[in-house]
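Note to self: keep these together.
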Amino acid sequence: MRILFTGGAGKAGRHVVPQLVAQGHRVLNLDLVPLEAEGVDNLIVDLADAGQVFSAMQSYAGFDELEPGTGLPAFDAVVHFAAVPRILIKPDSETFRINTLSTYNVMEAAMKAGIRKVIFASSETTYGVCFADGTRKPDYLPVDEDHPTVPEDAYACSKTCNEATGRSFHARWGADIYGLRINNVIEPHEYAEMFPAFLENPALRERNIFAYIDVRDLGQMVERCLATDGLGYEVFNVSNDDLSVGLSNAEVRARFYEGVPVKREMGANETFYANAKAREMLGFRPAHSWRDVLEG
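Structure:
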């Protein structure tokens, strides 16, 4: 596939884009800084500028695409990961402006360019737990895609607005638009660096609902979305199968989630951030775990 990817130089993108290239896809990365990786083409684009996005959405990816003399090739899909990645980087109003306006611009340009698939990064923060003022517990466990999304911070608000934007563009244009509610992204080297502290003090993971997503498995999730057509508008939790702490599922519930309803029986190490929908509808199968590194 010929893919337009935004935010490829970010923490997730710099792993996911090379995975897509390794699968044989042609990728043009739109970002404020280029991704220096083999086989990746880059355009420097301010996604909050609609004109730049419209132009980039109908662009050659590289000089080699001029050689056939058959005109401008079209993109098959858009993967939109670019964003201000959390609160407390830019002022709240700027975080909200950039994240919502860039997503609107990308989706509008994609639809009007005739692209029939957009995959965009939403967030675990939409459930209101991560950046709450004080401790907020989920309404029930495990947290699935039907759980209420009632955030109170600029970043999470921008992501819930982006989901509404995706739903609206699907309603008008009928394209496949898949939102990924991505949990805390972990790079392979971070297991040895970060997870010993999580084992020592499990409370460090409460705001992430004790979950995580290995960036390589996030790449698999994107691949499964690209390969699965006809779902319309859908949102998916994206997480690994196990908890990010050494306590069992029952021990975490007893210590941190007393009184929180449990919707179904759960496995000994099963994540509280349910990924069953992605497994059932997309064939998503996470393959990595911190346990492979720290217990291996």
